[in-house]
């Protein structure tokens, strides 16, 4: 039997996100290197939206979203790791479509 490929479709208010790759260590605005092992407050992460359910209203495929990666469900598809979350778990979006933004840009 040939391999049948099934398209993944998100349901209801679910969003599928690929976490944006990070270098691990970061630099402060003053140029100080902060190692990945440094203890900090809970850190939110940016990710790229790959799929949305039919009841998602404010997030579109292609948006970058800000969320807490520690509270999400992880799934592996064809060797890639993705997160599945509810739309309400998204804290912010970065998109070219602006209705009422913050004035900050990525």
Automatic annotation (TrEMBL):
The keyword Plastid does not apply. InterPro entries: Chaperonin_GroES, Chaperonin_GroES_sf, GroES-like_sf. It comes from Saccharothrix texasensis. Keywords: Chaperone. It comes from the Bacteria. Gene3D superfamilies: GroES chaperonin (2.30.33.40). Together with the chaperonin GroEL, plays an essential role in assisting protein folding. The GroEL-GroES system forms a nano-cage that allows encapsulation of the non-native substrate proteins and provides a physical environment optimized to promote and accelerate protein folding. GroES binds to the apical surface of the GroEL ring, thereby capping the opening of the GroEL channel. Heptamer of 7 subunits arranged in a ring. GO terms for molecular function: ATP binding; protein folding chaperone. The keyword Lyase does not apply. This is 10 kDa chaperonin. CDD domains: cpn10.
